[in-house]
Amino acid sequence: MSTSNLKNKWLIPVAFANIYIIWGITFLAISFGLTGFPPFILSGLRFFAAGILLIGYLLAKGEKANSLKNWWKNAVTGILILTGGTGLVAWGEQYVTASEAAITIATGPFWFIAIDRKNWSYYFSDKFIPIGLLLGFAGLILFLNGSVHSHTENVSSSLRITAFIVLALSSVAWVLGSLYSKKNPADHSTFMNISQQLIVAGLASFVVAFFRSEWTGFSMATIPVSAWLGLLFLIFFGSIIAYISYIWLLSVKPAAIVSTHTYINPIVTVIAGFIIANQTINGNQLYGLAIILIGVLLTNVTKYFRLSKRSKAKIRRVARHFGRISRPYQPM
After folding, report:
1. Any idea where the EamA domain is (predicted)?
2. 3-class SS at 47?
3. Within a 10 A sphere around the Cβ of 114, how many other Cβ atoms?
4. CB 256, CB 207: distance < 8 Å
5. Cβ atoms of 205 and 83 closer than 8 Å
6. Is-contact 278 99, C-beta < 8 A?
7. Which of 14, 262, 297, 325 sees the fewest Cβ atoms within 10 Å?
8. CB count in 10 Å sphere of residue 2
9. For residue range 168-177, what is the model confidence (pLDDT) as tens digits?
10. What is the pTM assigned to this prediction?
């Protein structure tokens, strides 16, 4: 085994741990950040700082970022995925718990299938996908039914309903950005694309904060330590380490395997929320989460079987190859 392969073998479980655990805790970090920062100022600081750090490192290595066309493509992707997808999560978490937000976002794969009309014939030719969609949305209804009337201090039911709608829209924005990025890829390196997306998303978040009057009366001097710690976690762990781990895993592992973070993140958030912030979920919410995750599994089950078959076929080919090599010499 080569040194590079050995290195990658050790990096893979570390990268999976990053996207499983860090992205699960990210929802909780947002709730801590919101104790001092308005939602879009928090998102803007998070994205812009992470993007500046990353692009600074890349420019120091000699990479170029002077293509306006690529900046434009990454701007659209960044605004949809980060400002819209993640910024709206921060807004929603003003009125729902981190656990509730994470469970709602777990429905993302369903929105991807619903919006990607070009591949509907492929999706719905698989009997598991429609069943998974129906189960997932049934689980979402059950979860929301248990959530809207759940006790949350100083938050009305109407605000919580609005928050859940906004969280659903954040998933839609993430999917639209992902589809745009897939159809309009930029020519820079992956990490340069990420850094540009983060910078533009940060600036766009600041603009949204301006129109929402979040800057009015805002003072850094009044920010509690917990909010600063939440922001630092979001910058270094959520927006740099976990995101880079995710992109790297996509280059070395099948997307179907990397997407398993969809199942793990809400579970991590629920556990971390209970341990760190004493957040709990009720019975209907728990049943809804279980049904949502089963639905997500069903929408991907065929891909997992195909992947398993390819892996087994590869193992058989390797075994036959070594069988020929190890076969004893037969004199003619």
Report:
1. 21-143, 164-300
2. helix
3. 14
4. no
5. yes
6. no
7. 325
8. 7
9. 899 889 888 8
10. 0.80
